[in-house]
Amino acid sequence: MRFVAAFMVLICHITIVVVPRVQEPWVASVGDYIYPAGPTGVVFFFVLSGFVLTWVARPTDTKRLFWRRRLVKIYPNHLVTLAVVTVLMLVYGNPVTAANTLPTLFLVQSWIPSQEVVLNFASSGASWTLACELLFYLCFPALLLLVRRVRAQRLWLWTGVVAVAICVMPFVAWLFPDTPTMTDSLASSIPWWEEWFVYYFPVVRALEFVLGMLVAQIVLSGRWIRLGLLPAVVLALASYLVIVKTLPETFSQSSGIAFFLALVIAAAATADADGRRTLLKSRTMVFFGEISFALYMVHWFVLGYGPLGMSKPDGWMRQSTLSRALYESALVIAVSMLLAWLLYVSVERPAMRRWSRPAPRKDTARTAPEPVIRA
Known about the structure:
Low-confidence stretches: 370-375
Shape: globular
Protein name: Acyltransferase family protein
Structural class: mainly alpha
Enzyme class: transferase
EC number: 2.3.-.-
Radius of gyration: 22 Å
Helix content: 55-70%
InterPro entries: Acyl_transf_3_dom (IPR002656), Acyltransferase_3 (IPR050879)
Number of strands: 0
Mean pLDDT: 90
Largest sheet: none
Distance between the termini: 56 Å
Number of helices: 15
Region (Disordered): 356-375
């Protein structure tokens, strides 16, 4: 499922680059349905993170060990990809400034409501989600205690409360100033403060993480409604189409689809626990899931400095035919997958094996056997 989320983001970003270059009305119409796939993929990943961490949490784990594993999971990939993209920025003459590097280095960029900090396309733009993840990880041990204290019969109630809170956030965002807009960034024409609050602000995005935690606890406590995976997917797709077709753009950033994605995740986890065979359990999909985080991290600089050249000097001014655009898009996907695999096997997996757990202590002193006490 992590791969599904990452691939949705990849396809969305490719579409954002390709559609203006082709300039075909029907391609633009198709793009209107694909653009929200990126934000939906991010929602999917946040809800999934909350669900999985709750699903695998064990009483023997400690906060220190949990935080250690999470930092080792994200930081090596982040530092390597940031170093690569910084070199590419220098090679292609894109400015390297404190604003577009230092907050990203320390993964605090999502807390800063500046387009230069968060939306710099030439830099490691996709890593803003890691700033949100860091908040989730920091709060997870305390949140887990709270979630586990909720009575089983009230879990669905609290899940509904959090789902409604997510839906309310776009309305809260309308209270922010209407200027500046995001037009100059080529990302959207909606007000920047509205976009930042709903999409980038870690505190707001934490609601999706908590939603995933609550739904995981529902399944673990035996309160799941036994909704099948296929009906859950149909509900999620229907909600996606309704949101894209009828609601303002701000709502496509998260809103009601988070709840339906949580149902999909719970249905898949239930099928897995019951031993039912699904496509998601195939060896290929498991492999794709393993490299999904690396795919998410590398796709941005492949998109920026690879065949499509989004971040090259003429990146936003190129014109192209549909066939050439599709060919370049396929190359971006292929190169991203290859680099993701290389990053996973050479950085992420070795780092997790080496540093995710403390090295065992070597006790040289022999311990005398305890006397046997017979009753």
